[in-house]
Specification:
The chain is built from 5 helices and no strands. It has helices spanning 2-6, 24-49, 63-83, 88-108, 115-131. The relative contact order is 0.16.
């Protein structure tokens, strides 16, 4: 199955900061998911963010929004890694932030030396999420 290949360790290395579970937040989410499961992590997500999801800006230099983006994407890929599925609500949220973050980087730093690496990783993540079962 293609999703297994895309979600495999060979595509998403834990040392790649652009990988869904390679940044600090994404790695923490993955380990918490493994140790405590989706129910507790979903509860923690609601406690951490509740209705204060930082959507008032599309500025990913804003630390809270960037942390939220990494959390949501890490959570989606923790589902994929351990349960081989991703709930629709989480998939939609992760895709939204992948696309908004890439647009922000292209707009604010069009000559950034890591832009191609970011685009490549985002392409893999989007393909994986779009094919993921619920």
């Amino acid at each position: 199955m293609k999703i297994e290949l895309l979600a495999s360790k060979s595509k998403f290395k834990k040392t790649d900061d652009f990988a869904p579970n390679g940044n600090d937040t994404g790695a923490d989410v993955l380990h918490f998911f493994k140790d405590h499961g989706k129910t507790i992590l979903t509860h923690e997500w609601q406690n951490m963010w509740g209705e204060a999801i930082p959507e008032a800006t599309d500025n990913y230099d804003y630390l809270a929004l960037n942390d939220y983006r990494e959390f949501v994407i890490g959570f989606a890929f923790a589902f994929l890694k351990y349960l081989a599925r991703c709930p629709d609500w989480l998939k939609v949220e992760a895709l939204h932030h992948i696309e908004k973050h890439q647009a922000f980087i292209k707009r604010e730093s069009p000559n950034w030396e890591h832009l191609d690496a970011l685009k490549h990783m985002n392409t893999l993540m989007i393909a994986c999420l779009e094919e993921a079962p619920n």
